[in-house]
Amino acid sequence: MVKEQRTGLYWFTRDLRLDDMPALIKLNSVVDSLILVYVFDEQLFKTAEFGWSRMGPHRKQFIEQGLGDLRAQLDDLGQHLLVLNGDTINEIARLCEQYAVSDIGATTLDGVYEQRTLSKIKQKCPLLRWHMQTQETLFGINALPMALESVDNTFTPWRKKIEDVVSPIAPEAVVKSLKPPVFESNCQQNSEPTAFLTKDWHGGERFGLAQLDYYFEGSQHLSQYKVTRNGMLGWDFSSKFSAWLASGMLSPRRVASRIVKYEENVEKNESTYWLYFELLWREFFHLQLKKHGHLFFAAGGFKQHNPNLHYDKTEVRKWCEGNTGCDIVDAGMRQLNTTGFLSNRARQLCASYLIHELNQHWRYGAAYFEYMLIDYDVASNWGNWLYLAGGGSDPRGQRKFDIAAQTERYDPHREFIDYWLR
User: Which residue ranges does the chain devote to CATH 1.10.579.10?
Assistant: First the structure.
């Protein structure tokens, strides 16, 4: 009997890397040839409900850089990355039909839009064998000591239940070989670059790993993370892993495993723990999104409280442009517009000001951040905005910051303000 020739397709999404890729490893092990594809979905660039598209220029450039880095790595393995623009459902279905794909692999994603896209692809291609793995979070849902519906809606009780009970999934080794491409790749061998940028946002797995090396053993800034993490100006006050994590160019499990290695070989202190603590916050918001689904984006959130729906176009525009007259907020928004990045502290102040000082509906701010952020993560962004607005995970109901007091505490010499308002 002639053995069935199986053709695989790996659909890259928020996993633009070769390190810690169990779904790709599994798919590669069961097929004879392989198609690798990424789709820039056309819906991401259409104006959405609150006035902006879902992806702006900062993140698009970062992802394009990451795709270039991934393509270079795949070329060295004799493979080829196909980057398409269009409707994801139709493009994946077309490739599956055109090349008689038998198996497909992908990362399990938690977003409502992503789940809907996956469901429609499965409807169009009902005979495909699917190989999916959780690859953008620390834990598998089945490893948690509670069912999804029983996950606490506030962070601290959940953290206390899982922190000493569940360990992050051990990261898989980097992919070293892949089955041959279905079509000619015209690949060219790429020599390994000798150095990568640090202290800069540049998309690509190898740039993310370089930042990991730099922040940990290279500079040992991790040892001061809890002390410096509320900084607002500069590069080294925080890890800056967020953009690589959000686009899947860096595995959170790899970061967690490197924290353990650092603690074993360099130093273990409150700061090394605190970076893991922040990874747990990221994990928590992903669980909240998985648990609550569309209510995560509802006006009243999953608490379904009575939301403030007020919208003044002029006020929101001034906030977006950094022209509110509140110096620290304006500085933050101008940094966001210029670079696509804001420190965690500045995000909280800018969001609180829009919601509680300008009295505007929170989803306009969340949507603008989605458009502008280089490190946009659907769960963390919408979860944090919902938290501040009072419809989410804040046990106090809502979170309003004293802007003057926060300015005095975190920018007492106006270095951040003067830099961005000069």
Answer: 303-421
Per-residue pLDDT of the chain (422 residues; tens, 9 = 90+): 557 899 999 999 999 999 999 999 999 999 999 999 999 999 999 999 999 999 999 999 999 999 999 999 999 999 999 999 999 999 999 999 999 999 999 999 988 999 999 999 999 999 999 999 999 999 988 899 999 999 999 999 999 999 999 999 999 999 999 999 998 755 444 445 445 656 789 999 999 999 999 999 999 999 999 999 999 999 999 999 999 999 999 999 999 999 999 999 999 999 999 999 999 999 999 999 999 999 999 999 998 888 899 999 999 999 999 999 999 999 999 999 999 999 999 999 999 999 999 999 999 999 999 999 999 999 999 999 999 999 998 877 678 999 999 999 999 999 999 999 99
CATH number of 303-421: 1.10.579.10
Contact between 255 and 136 under an 8 Å Cβ cutoff? The reply is no
Give every CB contact of residue 202 below 8 A, 6+ residues apart in sequence: 62, 65, 196
Decide yes or no: CATH 3.40.50.620 for domain 7-136.
Answer: yes
Per the document, the length of the chain is 422
Report d(CA 247, CA 232) in Å as an integer: 23
**CA distances for 161 relative to 145, 164, 338, angstroms:** 8, 8, 41
For residue 327, which phi and psi values (nearest 5 degrees)? Answer: -60, -50
Residues 6+ apart with CB under 8 A from 12: 36, 37, 38, 70, 81
Q: By C-alpha distance, which of 373, 387, 367 is closest to 301?
A: 387
Q: Residue 33: left (phi > 0), alpha (psi -120 to 50), or beta?
A: beta
- Dihedral over alpha carbons 346, 351, 352, 356 (to 10 degrees): 150
**CA distance readout (Å), 69 to 54, 63, 108, 191:** 23, 10, 23, 12
402 half-sphere exposure, CB direction, 13 A CA radius: 5
Distance in angstroms between the alpha carbons of the first and the last residue of the chain: 75
The ranges of the chain annotated as CATH 1.25.40.80 are 205-292
| Residue spans in the chain of domains classed CATH 3.40.50.620 | 7-136
Q: Is CATH 3.20.20.70 what the domain over 205-292 is classified as, yes or no?
A: no
Q: If you search the block for the tokens 């060219």, which residue do you land on? A: 188
Instruction: Measure CA 376 to chain center.
Output: 6
